[in-house]
Amino acid sequence: MEAAPDTTTILTPTSNEDLLQPQLPPTTEPLTFPLSHHYQYYLDKSTPFVLYRWIALLCVVFIYILRIYFVQGFYVVSYAVGIYILNLLIGFLSPQVDPELQALDDGPTLPVRASDEFRPFVRRLPEFKFWYSITKAFCIAFLLTFFSIFDVPVFWPILLFYWIVLFTLTMRRQIMHMIKYKYVPFNFGKQRYDTKRESSTEIASLLPAV
């Protein structure tokens, strides 16, 4: 009579390091990374198309206004978007370095005379980030209009009046800041050096007089 085969399992010793290593759960990075990569790629490709980006933003705003008009609600959400855009506008119109603080440290850096060197205006909030933040805000607000929990009953003319007052006071303070430190938050219409005229003047000064 043949003996039954030995079916016992031989256990190999396990080191303490293997026992102490945590078992990480599977992640979704391999799936989310290509999506975020492609999203960032097309977002970067749209950077030079300033006019088309703002036209697309106007279409998004128009769709959101139609949504608010038909549902007749979600005025608190719209007010929050308005306050957020107002904060973004302050950063868009402000210089990257506050001239008031920099004047105390190193002296004035913005040109104050016609003969000063031209320096392009560097914003605290760049144009692309300004556009992208507004677009994202309206898209999120549009999604929130499908949840009734965010539809807080409120008398919307009060919110509109309060936002207009805040906008007026904020823009007045910003304009006074521009006048005080003599800067314009746009690069067009500023003095630029005429390199051809300067080079011809330098060459003429080096030539011997006849």
UniProtKB/TrEMBL annotation:
It is a multi-pass membrane protein. GO terms for biological process: protein retention in ER lumen; retrograde vesicle-mediated transport, Golgi to endoplasmic reticulum. The keyword Ligase does not apply. The keyword Cell cycle does not apply. The chain crosses the membrane at residues 50-70, 76-94, 130-149, 155-172. GO terms for cellular component: endoplasmic reticulum; Golgi membrane. Keywords: Membrane, Transmembrane, Transmembrane helix. InterPro entries: Rer1 (IPR004932). Its main location: membrane. It is found in: Membrane. Belongs to the RER1 family. This is Protein RER1.
